[in-house]
Design a protein that fits this description.
It comes from Filobacillus milosensis. The chain is an alpha/beta fold. It has 16 helices and 20 strands. It folds into three domains: about 100 residues, Roll (Ubiquitin Conjugating Enzyme); about 170 residues, no CATH class; about 240 residues, NAD(P)-binding Rossmann-like Domain (Rossmann fold, 3-Layer(aba) Sandwich), CATH 3.40.50. The strands form four sheets. The protein has a seven-stranded mixed barrel with strand order 5-7-6-8-9-10-11. A seven-stranded mixed beta sheet has the order 14-13-12-15-16-17-20. The protein has a four-stranded antiparallel beta sheet with strand order 1-2-3-4.
Length: about 575
């Protein structure tokens, strides 16, 4: 560090008595805007101002106040650095640091600040035990289960096949009812306004009982009364409404210390047996579905999706949607995974060696990655599948088509319009010059057939007219393929995924076409020309396009121009 930090500190009017204790470490007095002076220590990094200094209240000269964001050691947590940019000018950075420190020290609403950081403070308890949870909190008290290992609670869950399967997949173990013991989930009805447990200050048994009794309705109390048992250990999962409007989840582990007590009890609310149990707080690491989806920015609405086509675009589309929290898919594809496509297919090279059906490999891969995803597979051509009655299009909420074969898509579009289910067609163009996604059957006119002009060309096409097909050939006719890369398929899948999210939010009007545009350099170097539509700006192409709609289309011209309404949504 070539910066004279001590000189910079001494120049600040709000700082006094700056003393260098050792390199990078200083003692000083900080005058707050209310006139109060508080002794601090500040320790700089050699990377200052890129890294911010560490600030403590100097406990040699001042007691450690009981206020939010000040630890028992005196450490002042003045900034959550996520997404914050500060000046790279040292003088300004020092001002920034002390401004944030001052905000902590003179906070006007300390209790709500404690509640805002409830989970953090609860996690500082000296005798807390960590516990995993895949149980999704509900609004009613419920008898649930806990997986106990070595007498200690390890994971909360519902004792049903799906929850046991999910936990077993995550732990790579076989979980069955014999491995589980009973636990109770109790959501408090009223907002908790009291102190937040931290460090060596946990609630007493009596405080816990009072908190529960004072924050539940009479109806909830009657439901809890059914949880009476005679056991050595009791496990509870509590949902607590906070002053911030949020709700936190904590666990409690009761162990009987009075072994002469032999009757059915509820230690959580029985005042007469408070001293007969030892209570250990449980810090809950939430891995339930709601929490994971929220953290991942995913969708919360249910969707039963039919995905037709599991090639490069289809597999990337499945990956994006499964990661977003969508759990129910039916896959249709009659092709096997081949090594020649391994560099642009989600499954990669190792799976292609097996030469197994794509649908089966994708089911195996995704149900292993996301155990709560349920995938049905059909290894068949889609038109045959529909015509032989193996599936009913009306059974799905949304149909996704990623075949890349306009002749099949043309026929499939007509079948979809005979159903009540909306669909999104998506495809990528040769040499990665672009990709498209088209909504159909979402109310009013506009369908795949509308894209096709009298010369049998697609309105959407970025490729200009050519007498030579846009394909490459390496091993004779059997080796023909449309040239594009994995980035092109992912970009196209992303385009379609965003339409799926808009569909779930009821944010699509009618049946738009949307497109993305890539570079035409290799395409043109290969002797081809681009279309007039390719010359449009990216901003225009990314917008919903309805110009393709043919008002005299023989397939959809008889449809009314009104928004699609689905009773299932």
């Amino acid at each position: 560090m070539n910066i004279d930090v001590q000189e910079l500190l001494q120049e600040k009017e709000y700082l006094d008595k700056v003393i260098a204790v050792e390199p990078y470490h200083y003692e000083l007095f900080f005058e707050l805007r209310n006139g109060y002076q508080i002794p601090l220590t500040i320790t700089f990094s050699p990377l200052f101002p890129t890294q911010l200094p560490i600030v403590h209240i100097n406990e040699k000269y001042h007691h450690i106040p009981d206020i939010p964001h000040v630890m028992s050691s005196g450490l002042v947590c003045f900034l959550d650095k996520e997404g914050v940019i500060w000046s790279d000018i040292p003088e300004r950075t020092i001002d920034f640091v002390f401004d944030r420190v001052e905000r902590v020290l003179i906070s006007n609403s300390p209790q709500i600040e404690y509640h805002r950081e409830f989970s953090y403070y609860f996690g500082t308890l000296e005798k807390t035990e960590p516990v995993f949870s895949v149980y999704t909190p509900e609004d009613e008290p419920k008898e649930i289960s806990v997986l106990a290992m070595g007498g200690k609670p390890f994971a909360f869950l519902t004792d049903d096949a799906e929850s046991r399967y999910l936990l077993g997949k995550l732990l790579n173990a076989n979980i069955n009812s014999r491995n589980l013991v009973k636990a109770n989930y109790i959501p408090l009805d009223y907002t908790y306004k009291g102190k937040v447990p931290q460090f060596d200050r946990f609630w007493s048994n009596e405080e816990i009982t009072n908190i529960i009794r004072n924050h539940i309705s009479d109806d909830t109390l009657l439901k809890i009364a059914k949880f009476s048992m005679n056991k050595k250990r009791y496990f509870y999962l509590l949902r607590i409404p906070l002053l911030t409007g949020d709700q936190t989840i904590i666990g409690l582990w009761y162990e009987k210390v009075n072994h002469s007590l032999s009757k059915k009890v509820i230690p959580l609310i029985d005042e007469s047996i408070i001293d007969d149990f030892k209570v250990t707080p449980l810090f809950v690491f939430r891995n339930d579905d709601t929490t994971l989806i929220e953290r991942g920015g995913g969708v919360r609405k249910p969707l039963n999706a039919l995905l037709v086509g599991c090639g490069s675009v289809g597999s990337d589309l499945l990956f994006m949607l499964a990661r977003s929290g969508i759990k129910h898919f039916t896959l249709i594809d009659d092709d096997k995974m081949k090594i020649e496509n391994s560099y642009r297919h989600f499954l990669g090279m190792n799976k292609s060696i097996e030469s197994k059906p794509k649908v089966k490999l994708l089911k195996e891969e995704f149900e292993n990655r996301y155990p709560n995803v349920h995938i049905q597979t059909i290894e068949n051509e889609v038109l045959d599948t529909i015509e032989n009655g193996e599936i009913e299009l009306n059974d799905f909420d949304l149909i996704l088509v990623a075949i890349g074969d306009p002749n099949i898509e043309r026929r499939l579009s007509k079948l979809i319009l005979e159903s009540s289910t909306p669909a999104i067609f998506t495809w990528v163009e040769a040499y990665g010059i672009g990709g498209h996604a088209l909504v159909v059957n979402n109310g009013g006119k506009g369908c795949y057939e509308c894209l096709i002009d009298t010369e049998l060309r697609l309105y959407s096409s970025f490729a200009g007219k050519s007498d030579v097909p846009f394909i490459k050939n390496m091993n004779g006719c059997a080796g023909s393929f449309t040239p594009y890369g994995s980035i092109d398929s992912m970009e196209t899948a992303l385009l379609a995924s965003r339409l799926v999210f808009r569909f779930l939010e009821n944010d699509i009007q009618g049946n738009p076409l949307v497109s993305w545009k890539g570079s035409s350099k290799i395409f043109e170097e290969s002797g081809f020309i681009t279309s007039e539509r390719y010359k449009q700006s990216t901003d225009i192409l990314n917008q919903d396009d309805y110009e393709y709609i043919n008002t005299s289309c023989k397939v959809c011209s008889n449809l009314k121009d009104e928004a699609y309404k689905d009773d299932k949504r």
